[in-house]
Write a structure and sequence with these properties.
- The structure is a single chain.
- By secondary structure, this protein is an alpha/beta fold.
- Helix content is 33%, strand content 21%.
- The chain contains 14 helices and 16 strands.
- It has helices spanning 76-83, 88-93, 98-107, 110-125, 142-157, 181-197, 232-244, 261-267, 281-290, 298-303, 312-318, 338-347, 353-359, 362-367; strands spanning 2-11, 19-28, 31-37, 49-52, 57-60, 62-64, 129-135, 162-170, 220-225, 250-253, 272-275, 293-296, 322-324, 385-388, 405-410, 413-417.
- α7 links the parallel β9 (220-225) and β10 (250-253).
- α6 (181-197) runs parallel beside α7 (232-244) and α8 packs parallel to α9 (281-290).
- The structure holds 3-[(4S)-2,5-dioxoimidazolidin-4-yl]propanoic acid and fe (iii) ion (FE).
- 3-[(4S)-2,5-dioxoimidazolidin-4-yl]propanoic acid is lined by residues 97-98, 101, 171, 224, 252, 255, 300, 327, 329-332.
- Fe (iii) ion is lined by residues 66, 68, 252, 327, 329.
Length: 420
């Protein structure tokens, strides 16, 4: 069915950053057929349905390209300890931190995990998010990692959203492997990856029309490269194994220290390197050479009261594409809301409104290997977009706590309307 969405103002987020005002979009089923100025609508296009948008702004559906939103429990008590002065690394070294969420996640049934994770996804969907990346990493054994990834697929199956999954088995050392980090890495490589990472198309993201439940569990492989987690050499070994299976890779790198993560990730052609507070000029140059997206996570920076800013000037100077995400997780980023993350990227990291909008659309799609399919309003892309009751897209990332999203369109259908 052809639908005309007219009398809108459209931030296409295409390569040229084109804006059409007043503009129109024509969608054919789940895809965009045409976009342009209202006045230029081709006479040959005869829409069967017209939606009048009364001057509201349209952006591509937002993409949260880094979340850990599937987990059980919460860590409010740990947050209280941190606000009273204890450090994240100190709490982790006493068996808290990630491992406390691992215990809760292992203990939860698959249905319980789904039930606890669903409201966090709903919160994102209310803000015009139509694509979400979801990591494992709180299971740390094969069955529990697979359980998390199945929940991610089930969330997609029951909600108007596209989910891209990452296997983050190398997130922390599980108790079963205490002081045997290399053995743990070997187990992931020789046992887990072939079992749940195999049978993947080399091209990256899901194909439109695939049923989420019939897709392989893993779309990409992630790791946590940090002095309190895994070394660059260990992450490099996982990446080599993942690439051999045709899986793209991404990395948590330079969040709390610089142990060479971005350099290794760049050598393996990683889709993204995420966090990057402690990355330097040479890291920015390496990411630029490999076409890796820098994913900045300002809510984690904020919630950890981090002082080291990511090297935004070096990323810009080297032409590294920058994306922004929530990092939704119970430890360092208790946040299931992309709009405040966009606000923090502007206020704390000094990104412009245009950089932030690109960071949650085009560049976020690229971080997921999906930029040929989504992330901009262009003919042939997914008809996923958000409609905003704002005077200008500068208002996205201006409000620190207000949601001006009034309509969400996914695959050409209105999936949400809110009074704003
Ligand atoms: N970096 C983070 O910020 C999260 N994971 C990671 O590798 C923290 C996860 C947690 O504390 O539960
Ligand atoms: Fe993370």
């Amino acid at each position: 069915m052809l639908t005309l969405w007219r009398n809108a103002r459209i931030a296409t987020c295409d390569d040229a950053g084109r804006v059409h005002s007043p503009g129109a979009v024509v969608t054919r089923g789940p895809l965009i057929e045409w976009v342009g100025d209202d006045a230029d609508l081709p006479a040959g296009l005869r829409p069967e349905r017209t939606v009048e948008l009364a001057g509201r702004w349209i952006t591509p559906g937002l993409i949260d390209c880094h979340t850990h939103l599937v987990f059980a429990g919460q860590r409010a008590a740990e947050f209280a300890r941190r606000t009273a002065g204890e450090s994240y690394a100190g709490i982790a070294s006493e068996g808290g931190g990630i491992l406390s969420t691992v215990s809760a996640t292992r203990a939860a049934s698959e249905d319980e995990l789904l039930e606890q994770s669903e409201p966090r996804l709903q919160s994102l969907l209310q803000e015009g998010v139509t694509t979400v990346e979801i990591k494992s990493g709180y299971g740390l054994d094969l069955a529990s990692e697979a359980k998390m990834l199945r929940v991610a697929r089930r969330l997609e199956a029951s909600n108007p959203v596209t989910v891209s999954t990452s296997l983050l088995a190398a997130h922390a050392l599980p108790p079963e492997f205490a002081v045997r980090a290399d053995d743990y890495i070997d187990t992931i490589i020789s046992d887990w990856l072939p079992k749940i990472g195999a049978r993947h198309r080399i091209s990256g993201g899901p194909l439109m029309g695939d049923s989420p439940l019939s897709r392989p569990l893993v779309d990409a492989v992630d790791a946590y490269c940090e002095n309190i987690a895994f070394s660059a050499e260990q992450c490099g070994r996982i990446f080599a194994a993942a690439r051999a299976l045709g899986l793209p890779v991404r990395l948590h790198s330079e969040q709390l220290s610089n142990v060479g993560g971005s350099q290794v990730a760049a050598r393996h052609g990683a889709l993204s390197c995420d966090h990057l507070e402690y990355a330097d000029e040479a890291d920015a140059a390496a990411l630029a050479r490999s076409g890796t997206v820098a994913v900045l996570l300002p809510v984690a920076y904020y919630a950890l009261a981090e002082k080291q800013l990511p090297p935004v000037a070096a990323l810009r100077a080297n032409g590294v594409p920058v994306a922004i995400a929530t990092d939704c997780n119970p430890g360092t980023s208790p946040c299931a809301s992309l709009l405040p993350a966009m606000n923090m990227a502007r206020r704390l990291f000094g990104l412009s409104s245009e950089e932030v909008l690109r960071g949650v659309t085009r560049n976020a799609a690229r971080a997921l290997g999906m930029h040929a399919e989504r992330g901009s309003i262009e003919p042939g892309r997914a008809a996923d977009f958000a409609v905003w009751s704002v005077e200008s897209p500068d208002e996205l990332g201006y409000w620190a706590g207000f949601n001006p999203c009034s309509m969400v369109v996914r695959a050409g259908e209105i999936v949400l309307e809110r009074p704003v």
